[in-house]
Design goal:
By secondary structure, this protein is an alpha/beta fold. It is built from 5 helices and 3 strands, in the order H-E-H-E-H-H-E-H. The chain has helices spanning about 1-15, 30-45, 55-70, 75-80, 85-95; strands spanning about 20, 50-55, 80-85. The protein has a 3-stranded parallel beta sheet with strand order 1-2-3, with helices on both faces. The model is unreliable at about 105-120 (pLDDT under 50).
Length: about 120
């Protein structure tokens, strides 16, 4: 049964055009899950990944992992991290780029290539 769930999860990740990750730590102990994501983006290097967390560290760890483990995936330009309270930020993300994301304060990237969006919530 667990194998069926894992296979189904991997199928969903592979076929998704975009992936939204909420509150997942991407620690070294979770390498198996990170490798599932790695295989998914290798199957489609144009896949966008949105990471929502209270801090930027999980997205930074994930970006670094995919930089070294996923061939032909531009993790600097395909992973977007949103820092903030999910209860307030998630509804804005789900409204899409023309409506909801306009409600988020998009910060300057840490590097020239990396795009980072930070929710500026009061």
């Amino acid at each position: 049964m667990l194998l069926d769930v894992r296979q189904a999860a991997e199928q969903v990740l592979r076929h998704a055009k975009s992936i939204l990750v909420i509150g997942y730590s991407f620690t070294e102990n979770d390498e198996y899950i990170s490798r599932m994501f790695s295989r998914a983006v290798e199957a489609d290097a144009d896949k966008d990944i949105f990471v929502l967390d209270l801090e930027s560290a999980p997205a930074d760890r994930f970006r670094q992992f995919l930089t070294t483990h996923a061939q032909n995936f531009d993790s600097d330009n395909r992973i977007f991290d949103f820092v903030g309270d999910g209860e307030e930020t998630l509804p804005l993300l789900l409204q899409g780029p023309t409506n909801g994301l306009a409600g988020l304060d998009v910060g300057k990237p840490k590097t020239r290539k990396r795009r980072r969006a930070t929710a500026n919530l009061k």
